[in-house]
Amino acid sequence: MFRRTNAAACAVAVAGSALVGLAAGTANAAPGCPDVHWIGAAGSGERDGYGAASNGGMGEIVYDSYVALQQQLAQEGRTITAEAVDYPATDVPDNAGIGDWLKYMGSVDTGTAALGGQYAAFTAQCPNTKVVLAGYSQGAMIVHRNLAAIGADPNLAASLLIADGDRHPDDTTVNIGSASKDPQKTGGAAQDWPILAHAPAKLPANVGVRTISVCDAGDAVCDYDPKADKVSPIAVAIHTSYTTAGSEGQMWTWMVHQLLGGASSSAVPDGSQVLPALS
After folding, report:
1. Of 32-41, 80-89, 95-104, 132-141, which range is least confident?
2. How far apart are CA 134 and CA 171, in angstroms?
3. Closest CA to 216 of 164, 171, 158, 253
4. Which of 98, 140, 227, 267 has a Cα-to-Cα distance from 105 of 20 to 30 A?
C-alpha cells in the first residue's frame, strides 16, 4: 500500500546522522531516566472499549509502533518508556450537528494541551532523554498541533503522524505513503475548514525533517475529498488499514529509529541499504 522512496529514507538518514553527532556531545540519560521516552496519542474512540487497556491507552497502531521500536532499541541495550496522552479521544460525529463537532474539536484541544503538559513534565524530570511523539488520526492532530511550539526543543528527536487530519500535502515533513503531494489538494480533513478547525500551518523545515507523516491515497482523514457527498466505506477502510505487520510499518519504525541515532548501516525494510555517504 505504501510506497517507500529512496529520497525519504535518505532524508531521515541525514537527519539521523546529524542527531548522532549532537548526542555524542551530551550526557546519557539521567539516573532513573530512560534513553528514549515515547508519548503516544490514540485515535478517535480508541481510549474506550475493548482493547484500550491492552495498548496502554495509545490505540493499537501507535502502541504497535512503540513495541516495534522498543524491540529495536533493546537489541542495542537502550531503554525506552512510554505513556499515553490523557485525553477523551472523542468519536468522530456521524452526520451530527455543530454541537457534536464542537465537542470533537474540544477533544482535540484538550489533547493538544495535555500532550504539551506531559511533554514539559517529562523533560523537566529527564532533561537528557530523547522523546518521540506519535499519534494516529485525531491523535496525530494532537501531536501536529504541538510541533510548532515544541518541535525545535532539543529533547524531541522524532515525531510520527499516522493518518493526520491536519496534514498538508506539501508539508516539510518526511512523507511516506501513496497520498498525493500536490499542494492544490486539501490534505487532512481539518485543512478543508482551517479557520473553524484552527488547523496548523506548514511546519518549519527544521521540525519537518524530524517528522514522519504517513498517509495513503483515499484515506478519509488525511487525504480528505471535499467533493464527496459522504465518506465512503472504502475511504474508512483505508484509514483503518495502517499496520506495522508489513514492510510499510517497518519503514516508519525504521525511520524513527534512524532519527534516534540508530546504526546508519541498518537495513531498510526491503533489504536495500542507506547510501554510505550519508552515514
Report:
1. 95-104
2. 17
3. 164
4. 227
Rounded CA gap, 53 and 39, in Å?
Answer: 16
Arithmetic mean of pLDDT over the chain: 83
State the DSSP code for 276: G
Can you list the domains of the chain with their CATH numbers? 6-270 (3.40.50.1820)
Measured from the Cβ of residue 173, the count of other Cβ atoms closer than 10 Å reads 27
- Residue pair 118/39 in contact (Cβ under 8 Å)? The answer is yes
Judge whether 174 and 154 are in contact, CB under 8 Å: no
What order of strands is seen across the sheet that includes strand 80-84?
Answer: 80-84, 36-41, 130-136, 156-162, 211-214, 174-176
Would you say residue 7 has pLDDT above 80?
no
Distance CA 183, CA 199 (A): 16
Question: How far, rounded to the nearest angstrom, does the alpha carbon of residue 95 sit from its chain's CA centroid?
Answer: 28
End-to-end Cα separation, the chain, in angstroms = 28
Which residues 6+ apart lie within 8 Å of 266 measured at CB?
254, 257, 258, 274
What one-character DSSP code corresponds to residue 219?
A: -
pLDDT > 60? residue 92: yes
Contact between residue 180 and residue 169 where contact means Cβ atoms under 8 Å apart: yes
Nearest one of 132, 261, 274, 144 to 204, comparing CA atoms: 144
DSSP string, 153-218: -TTEEEEEEES-TT--TT-SSEEESSS---TTS--SGGGGSTTTTT---PPPHHHHTTEEEE--TT
Q: Which three cell numbers stand for residue 260?
A: 534516534
Residue 111 · residue 41 · CB < 8 Å: yes
Strands 211-214 and 156-162: parallel
